[in-house]
Amino acid sequence: MAMLRKNTASTSEVNVKVNTLIGEGTVFDGNLTAPDSIRIDGTINGNCSCDSTLVLGETGHVFGNITVQNIIISGEVKGDIIAKGKLEFLSTGRLTGNITANTLVIDEGAYFDGKCTMTSDGSTSMFGQQD
Q: What is the reported pTM?
């Protein structure tokens, strides 16, 4: 299910319990894997994966692929994203890369340059290929 909406603040972003935080000004080179939620306000140069929700703040940047259950994007991603659940673009979000998601929400003003593949049951394998 894809949906567009006007510029509104995400209540999801506010309500996510954060277990791992990459703070503003922090640069992490390498792959980041976490079993619980991640919030990124700094820069990741590498792939990210988590079994829960990834929140990319307005000052956050990821230069690599992302595999998550859910993702909320306010910052910038250059890479492909697999969201087994919900992918939510806020108005300041920017993505150059491909999306595979079960549910997609895009706020007015968000930037997306790539291909989108929707899944019906959340089952995905390598970037766009259904199991």
A: 0.82
